[in-house]
Sequence to fold (435 residues):
Amino acid sequence: MSAVTVEAVRAIVAAVPDPELPVLTIDDLGVLREVRVDDDGHVEVDITPTYSGCPAMDAIRADVERRLGDVGMADVVVRLVLAPAWSTDEISESGRRKLLHFGIAPPTGRAAVGGPVALTLAVRCPQCGSSDTRELSRFGSTACKALWACNACQEPFDAVKVL
Amino acid sequence: MIGSKPAELSPSGQAITWSDSDKSVAVGAYALRLGDDALVLAHRMAEWIASAPELEEDVALANIGLDLLGQARMLLTYAGEVDGTGRSEDDLAYFRDEREFVNCQLVELPNGDFAVTMARMLVFAAYQYELYDRLCSSSDETLAAVAAKAVKEVAYHRDHATRWVLRLGDGTAESQQRMQAALDVVWPYVSELFEGNELVHGLVGGGIAVDPAELRDPTTDYLTTVIEQATLTVPDTSVWHTGGRRGIHTEALGYLLAEMQHLARTHPGAPW
Ligand SMILES: [Zn+2]
Fold:
């Protein structure tokens, strides 16, 4: 086997989809942190949970190991890192566009710097684009989403909560 | 109570120096105290699944329980690593008996009606918010990282409970009466949250733990503001229950543990 490069490993791992938001990769989501490869070809991949109780982490770990295993990399350790704490600010621009295209409102506003109080701006309907929307429930189908509805087109939709 | 002088302080008021192994054991015990609170309340939240007053609330309580369970897993995992015993999160959750649990009594109280659940969530999230907000600056990197994640989640829990207490308190005569009754149920368990012990005070000196006494004023201020805004009254309590940190619990915890631990003890090592 030829020498394994960090770039090659990262390219493979970056394509792993998030199990709960499969339209996004773990790279789009900011769940993929660092990839390291040492001289012996030993691979370490750091991932970070979105929420403390995120049940997707075990599935992501298994997917990372499987995809690398498929190309012959078996000496792989997937580490769960907590710091710095994940924030919706880490969702990439392309990730935000994919969410919108999929019918999920991307997080609006930024997590407040140095404090936990998030600023939520008006949430735009991903179906019709209206900003005349209302929050139905702050807790949605997964830990990272809230349930909203549009007053213009009457459609309910998921919105990623600012964290 | 919190007025007594912590034993770990030398006459000069300086924290005494612990050996590294003593310190590790103490950090483990502190992580266990935080983790047990989160674990027991996570179980109470899970009990609401499929029984909440509306579907959205079912989802909310399940998500809040999941956040707490995630915090508990990180804290129990760390407790078993740092204290040198090598116990896993499952060992700690499923194979300790009631007297070995060091959660506060507030979190083990039965859910009661929805108002009691919300009163308890309001109190506990307000306390946990102030705690984690300060623990983010802990000199212990793991505790600081867990806190930095958790404080953002707890902000949502506190907000959720606040909205319900306002809605029910400043609602109909029936909802107001039941919300007040719920506050009366949980209030005698509030003071325990702010109690320290020798172990915690020793860690406070080292910049690792947060002094629970320091949380009393900001937590109480938040609760008082919400309660008054909800046209309710801060209960006038003269008897304060305590003992959870020493393993003294109410009758309710035994039943909770019997349910939570049954499967793991019947089929040791069973994965899924
Ligand atoms: Zn719309």
Notes: Strands of chain A lie at 32-37, 43-47, 76-80, 104-105, 133-137, 145-150, 156-160. Helices of chain A lie at 6-14, 26-29, 57-70, 93-101. Chain A touches chain B at residues 49, 51-55, 82-87, 111, 116-118, 136-141, 143, 147, 161, 163 (CB under 8 Å).
